[in-house]
Design goal:
Order of helices and strands: HHHHEEEHHHHEEHHHHHHEE
Radius of gyration: 21 Å
Structural class: mainly alpha
Shape: globular
Strand order of the largest sheet: 1-2-3
Number of helices: 14
Helix content: 55-70%
Number of strands: 7
Number of domains: 3
Distance between the termini: 21 Å
């Protein structure tokens, strides 16, 4: 049995897959809610007992494959689940202009400001126009007109006009339910994952390699920086290189902690404390973010850097 595995505290689509598989085999009777808690842990133990294995309660690669019939989730899939948990959106939820990005929607918080929402809607329309029209109904033509426009000032004004609440995080109807319905479709989930991989994960792995961030924690940190912060700024890269040249400890762990500090220091002052807690937790594999105790080993991340 491997020491690596998903366990208590893990949250997201991968847990959904595991819960459904355990449910189909009669080991799990709880809600399929994507939350790896005590019920899921006991169900995994029951499955392991039936196979004559050590009852760790963790879905290590062998247990995962035995339960689901699927390969162990890729590093991208596991990194995506960690960042999605911290972004707090899921595939369906849309937020208003609370941070100046217009609208924020989807598994990693695609925005109007950076063109992510527009690209997803346009691609969905090309692949299955009836799906988009089914989600937005009579508002579809207006949506498509907005998504085709390249004038950010007009898009931002529109987003502000449909944002609700004192902090502008809410979204007016029919837009809220339209994005929710579209985000719930298998096609849009697939598109969101494809865009997350291509536009964020793949570039982030070049960053991880260039900065010597180590193994799976380095991959997770780089991905989260690309998603939340748009990548590592040139000035931060220069500071990172200069400080590493003078450092006594140049290990991947030390590199990750330094990068986490630099990225947080250059973030918007409004979000700096949040960024600092989030990046340090990923850099070290342990921490507390938004009151959430984070242990990346629960997502099957290897906390030990390769030799």
């Amino acid at each position: 049995m491997s020491a690596k595995g998903m366990g208590r505290g893990c949250f997201g689509d991968l847990v959904n897959v595991l819960q459904v598989a355990l449910q189909q085999q009669g080991f799990y009777t709880g809600a399929v809610d994507g939350d790896f808690g005590g019920g899921t842990e006991r169900s995994v133990q029951a499955l392991q007992a039936s196979a004559g294995w050590q009852q760790t309660g963790r879905a290590d690669p062998a247990t995962w494959q035995h339960a689901t019939g699927l390969p162990w989730p890729s590093l991208f899939e596991r990194c995506l689940q960690v960042t999605a948990r911290l972004e707090g959106h899921g595939y369906q939820t849309v937020a208003g202009n609370f941070d100046g990005a217009g609208l924020t929607w989807g598994i990693i918080g695609f925005t109007l400001q950076h063109g992510g929402i527009q690209a997803l809607v346009r691609e969905a329309m090309l692949r299955d126009p009836d799906l988009v029209r089914g989600a937005f109904g009579a508002a579809t033509d207006e949506l498509l007109e907005r998504m085709a426009g390249g004038d950010w000032s007009k898009l931002k004004d529109w987003a502000a006009s449909i944002s609700l609440g004192a902090n502008l995080a809410g979204v007016a109807q029919p837009w809220r339910d339209g994005f929710r319905r579209l985000g719930a479709t298998p096609l849009m989930k697939q598109l969101q994952r494809e865009h997350a991989r291509r536009e964020y994960f793949e570039p982030s792995q070049a960053t991880a390699q260039a900065l010597g961030l180590g193994g799976e924690l380095g991959a997770a940190l780089a991905f989260d920086i690309h998603v939340q912060n748009g990548g590592v700024k040139t000035a931060d890269r220069k500071t990172f290189a200069a400080r590493m040249a003078r450092a006594g400890d140049r290990s991947p762990a030390a590199r990750r902690v330094l990068l986490a500090e630099l990225v947080a220091a250059s973030a918007n002052a409004r979000w700096r404390a949040d960024v600092a807690a989030r990046k340090r937790a990923i850099a070290t594999g342990l921490g507390e973010v938004h009151g959430l105790r984070l242990d990346l080993s629960a997502w099957g991340m290897d906390l030990v850097d390769p030799a």
